[in-house]
Amino acid sequence: MALLPFFGSIVAVVLSQLWNPLGLHLGYPVKVGGNMKKLTIFTKRLQARRDDIKAQIDIAERRHKTRKHKAKEWLQSVKAIEGEVKVIKHAYDERCRCCGEFSLDIIGKHRISRRAAKKLKQVMELFDRGGAFEEIAVELPLPSIEEMPIASAVIGMQSNLEKILRHLEDDKVGVVGVWGMGGVGKTTLLKSINNHLLADFESFCYDHVVCIAASKGCKLENLQLDIAEKIGLYLKQDSSITTSHTSTIFNLLKNKKFLLLLDDLWEPIDLAGVGIPQPNGTRNQKIVLTTRFEKVCGNMGVHTKIKLECVEPDNAWELFKNSVSEDTVNSDARIQSLARKVCRRCSGLPLALIFVGRSMSTKRTLQEWENAIASLENMRLSGNSCMKDAHPVLSTIRFSYDILEDEQTKRCFLTCALWPEGYSIWKVELVDFWMGLGLQPIRATIEDAYNEGFSRIERLKKACLLEDGDVSDKEV
What we know:
about 475 residues, alpha/beta, Butyryl-CoA Dehydrogenase, subunit A, domain 3, Rossmann fold, Helicase, Ruva Protein, domain 3, 4 domains, 5-stranded parallel beta sheet, two-stranded antiparallel sheet, 21 helices, 7 strands
């Protein structure tokens, strides 16, 4: 009799082990509605968490970060399980539509309920994983080369572009110097080199292509900070540790293949002092620099010099038409004849052709074109020697300035001279400055005032008096 309790407990254990899975399976048909409801609720919670994480990723990407692999895989898993849940829900809806919610189809109910229960467990696990991310994004690695914005069509530069590209493939050439008068297209050519390399990057195999502007009065430490930013180095903005900056830049670049595109040099700079290794063609370490002065090329020890000349008449006309627009030029045969005269007054200087062309893009009457010819001629014949001789493009800038529609916009433009040459000005900062000087009136709302200021900036850009800054949508 003493063995009866012992055997009784064994039987109870065996029966429980048999009943638990059996009860689970017997419960599936009964719980089909409840399992589907829970699956729907938790799927919505998972989708809400997915939307929150995607929003965080979007913010991070705007700050030049990239999503981590774990976050990427999690989002892919969520997308996959959403599709699987839809299949189960569709099967349940179809069964209800055909047989009714209280159908006696036990096997069908069992199959759907079991699938829903298994999927619910996976959804809950994914939901928990999504809440365990400590960090969903990391700093985005800097690209080896970035596309440079070019404000106008590149016309008449193909031969010089091809010539420079050949020099870049020549192991005997380390430094290429491009020189010519202001407005002849040196900056556009440098940007064209950059963008050509971007399109065919694998052929040139550079680790870094760095395009920066030196400009007049540029300090060595500013060049160091610009270069460091482009190649992903962090340097403290402290002029007292310039030597440390030099070695930091040098140590990173000395074993790298790099191309430094250095624009608008006004005087020689000490490349070694900046931290640039001695250019070496055989190691694919090269520099292309632009300057207005041939002597700067000599003092920088360039291996080959290229002088940029004004474009040929046919190319000048194409560039001018492109800036004015075909519609304006072809609106009247007499306007086309006058347009050719205006084009000739620009003497083949690309910047002048673009400045004047865009300024005339909305002029559709003979009187406006005749007045433009007279204005350009008067500027050539009169005015001080500084305007006529110091810089050939000054008269065309003056022309674009003179035809601005109101004095307020002219005064706003002149304030830009308070920033250093080549400096990118934040649009918001510029409008704030205009407001502070009383040049930009305060409207009904501050948003209206900013919108009016931004519109004025766009008008100055269309007149070719301002151009996009380093961050094209935020700076000029």
